[in-house]
């Protein structure tokens, strides 16, 4: 890379255990989701979906903030219904790509995560936040109800808690976010990466096939009635039990030894 070559908007690193970290790399703009950033992140998610060696995906960010949401300057520059429909469709595609990945996705959050940045945290399967992180769906402060972030937020928080954030635009801190279900763990800022690595290591130790089947089932069953959910879950468990990793795991338990995965 020469001095004139722009830095990549998303940095990728993958370790020997299959943990890939995607780092949003627009720190001077608080990692706002410009059209170029959305495209770069979508390309990375598409690549991750094709990687059979992938075990965990971490979404992190460079600089003082995790993500400040959409780029409002870009949004204001082309005020047409068709443009906004296309923009939010691309953002929705990206958010659903996270949900559709066959591996757990962990958000590693520092600083602020606002509007679509908060949506990104909510769409990840797991989240670890620095103790000084703050979260908001603040579009209402500029007259724009955060409708698409609200879809993700309302699937993480109790309804009244999510609605309060949406109609006030106010911030909640990391501990409150953990109490309300937006994040799983809170760590000191200098221990954030280590806390994420610890969580990822616990996942990597489990069979990939079981995690893939389980993640898909977990989200499917949330959207149907309880009878259909049990029917789907039972079929998923039966298929999972026929996986070599499950057969080996059960036999290892019977034999009182560690499974050979």
Structure overview:
This protein is of the alpha/beta class and 261 residues long. It folds into two domains: 10-204, 2-enoyl-CoA Hydratase, Chain A, domain 1, CATH 3.90.226; 208-255, Lyase 2-enoyl-coa Hydratase, Chain  A, domain 2. The protein is built from eleven helices and nine strands. The strands form two sheets. A six-stranded mixed sheet has the order 1-2-3-4-6-9, with helices on both faces. A three-stranded mixed sheet has the order 5-7-8. The protein is globular. The mean pLDDT is 96.
Oligomer: single chain
CATH fold category name of the largest domain: 2-enoyl-CoA Hydratase, Chain A, domain 1
Radius of gyration: 19 Å
What is the number of beta strands?
A: 9
Task: Give me the strand/helix succession.
Answer: EEHEHHEEHEEHHEHEHHHH
CATH architecture identity of the largest domain:
Alpha-Beta Complex
Structural class: alpha/beta
Unreliable spans: none
* Number of DSSP helical runs: 11
Average per-residue pLDDT, rounded, comes to 96
CATH class of the largest domain: Alpha Beta
Topology:
Layout: E1 10-14, E2 19-24, H1 35-49, E3 56-61, H2 72-77, H3 81-100, E4 105-109, E5 112-114, H4 116-123, E6 126-130, E7 134-136, H5 147-153, H6 159-168, E8 172-173, H7 174-180, E9 185-187, H8 192-204, H9 208-222, H10 226-241, H11 244-255
């Amino acid at each position: 890379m020469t001095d004139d070559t722009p830095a990549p908007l998303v940095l990728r690193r993958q370790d020997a255990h299959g943990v890939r970290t995607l780092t949003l790399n627009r720190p001077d703009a608080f990692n706002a989701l410009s059209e170029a950033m959305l495209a770069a992140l979508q390309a990375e998610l598409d690549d991750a979906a094709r990687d059979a060696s992938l075990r965990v995906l971490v979404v992190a960010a460079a600089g003082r903030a995790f993500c400040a949401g959409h780029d409002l300057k870009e949004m204001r520059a082309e005020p047409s219904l068709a443009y906004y429909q296309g923009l939010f469709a691309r953002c929705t595609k990206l958010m659903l790509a996270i949900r559709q990945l066959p591996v757990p996705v962990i958000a590693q959050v520092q600083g602020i995560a606002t509007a679509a940045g908060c949506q990104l945290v909510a769409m990840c399967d797991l989240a670890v936040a620095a103790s000084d992180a703050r979260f908001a769906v603040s579009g209402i402060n500029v007259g724009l109800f955060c409708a698409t972030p609200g879809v993700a937020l309302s699937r993480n928080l109790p309804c009244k808690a999510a609605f309060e954030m949406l109609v006030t635009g106010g911030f909640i801190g990391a501990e409150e976010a953990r109490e309300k279900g937006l994040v799983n763990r809170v760590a000191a800022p200098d221990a954030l990466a280590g806390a994420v690595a610890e969580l990822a290591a616990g996942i990597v130790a489990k069979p990939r096939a079981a995690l893939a089947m389980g993640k898909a089932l977990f989200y499917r069953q949330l959207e149907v009635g309880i009878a259909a959910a049990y029917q789907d879950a039972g079929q998923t468990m039966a298929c999972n039990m026929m996986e070599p990793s499950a057969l080996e795991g059960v036999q290892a338990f019977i034999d009182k030894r560690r499974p050979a995965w």
